[in-house]
Structure formats: C-alpha cells, structure tokens
Structure to design on (184 residues):
C-alpha cells in the first residue's frame, strides 16, 4: 500500500497525507478484519473498507489504555484538540496517539477519491478487465491541478540544506492552512 500511495501522490505526512506508520496501521487493521484473506484480496478489502469508512471515526488496532505514567493519550472526549482530527489513526502502544494529525479536509478528500479509484480498479481486476499496472499508475499531478506552489531551497552545503528542508517541511501544513483562510 505504501508503493500505491507513493505512486498516487498521497504518501507524505508533512504534506497532510499519510506517512509509513499510518499506511502500516491501516493495512494492519484490514489484516485483523480479514485474517485468512489472500494478499490480493486484502488489497481489494483495503479499498472497499476505506471507501465506506465514516471519517472522523478512528481506526484502532486495540482499545486505548490509560497507562500508569500519566502521559496524555488521544481522547476526543477530554482533549479539545483531538476533536478536530479529520482522519484519526491511533497508535496501538501507550501512550496512544493520533498518528495522522496532519490530515486536512482537502487531503482527506483527495485520499477518499484515491480509495474510490482503487476500489473501482480492484472490481475491474476481479472481473478480469484490468491489471495491477492500472492500480499503480502514477498520479498525473500537473494535469490534475491548475495551480500549485513550488518551493526552491538553496544553501551553500548539504548539512544546511538538510536542516532547511526539514524546517520548511515541518511548516508546510501551516502555510496551506493560512492560504485556505486567506481565500475565504
């Protein structure tokens, strides 16, 4: 699923999509639901389940435990910030946290569209009308979007470039949220 997400342009935690741990947790939950399914059927079930999923209902591999260390855990009943999460995917180890807090309304919409596309392609594959290549076809980013923002970073050495890249990536989500507010 990580390869599929990368091909379809929905693999990037810093951009408001899902990162590796998020995809692993979603797949693990499907494996829990269908423990005896073949891998190809798990892919089909993955798309079917997440096409039907009612976000912001959370995906959890196990029940949330309080723990004895007093660390904060994900709990939208008690924590106001947790109520605003669009696509909660909860880590299974204490302290349980939402691993997908970067997801925004727009990135959730894009992922839902991609889940639907994946589901439709899996149905075609089951009817022998498509093959795996279609599922992993790269997303036509420049054809799909009329406007986009490109950020270029220039530094004198690789160490400075890594630091600036990390800093900028950590703030991209805030930039897109501020751009959304300005467009209202």
């Amino acid at each position: 699923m990580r390869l599929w997400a990368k091909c379809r342009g929905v693999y990037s935690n810093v951009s408001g999509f899902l990162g590796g741990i998020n995809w692993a947790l979603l797949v693990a939950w499907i494996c829990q639901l269908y423990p005896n399914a073949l891998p190809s059927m798990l892919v089909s079930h993955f798309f079917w389940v997440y096409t039907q999923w009612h976000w912001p209902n959370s995906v959890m591999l196990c029940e949330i435990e309080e723990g004895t260390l007093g660390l904060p855990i994900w709990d939208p009943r008690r924590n106001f910030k947790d109520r605003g999460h669009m696509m909660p995917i909860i880590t299974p180890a204490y302290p349980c946290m939402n691993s997908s807090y970067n997801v925004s309304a727009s990135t959730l919409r894009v992922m839902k569209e991609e889940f639907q596309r994946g589901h439709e392609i899996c149905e075609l594959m089951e009817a022998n009308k498509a093959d795996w290549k279609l599922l992993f076809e790269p997303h036509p980013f420049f054809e799909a979007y009329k406007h986009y923002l490109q950020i270029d970073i220039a530094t004198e050495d690789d160490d400075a470039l890594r630091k600036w890249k990390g800093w900028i990536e950590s703030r991209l989500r805030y930039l897109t949220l501020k751009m959304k507010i300005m467009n209202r």
The longest strand covers residues 59-60. The chain has a mean pLDDT of 90.
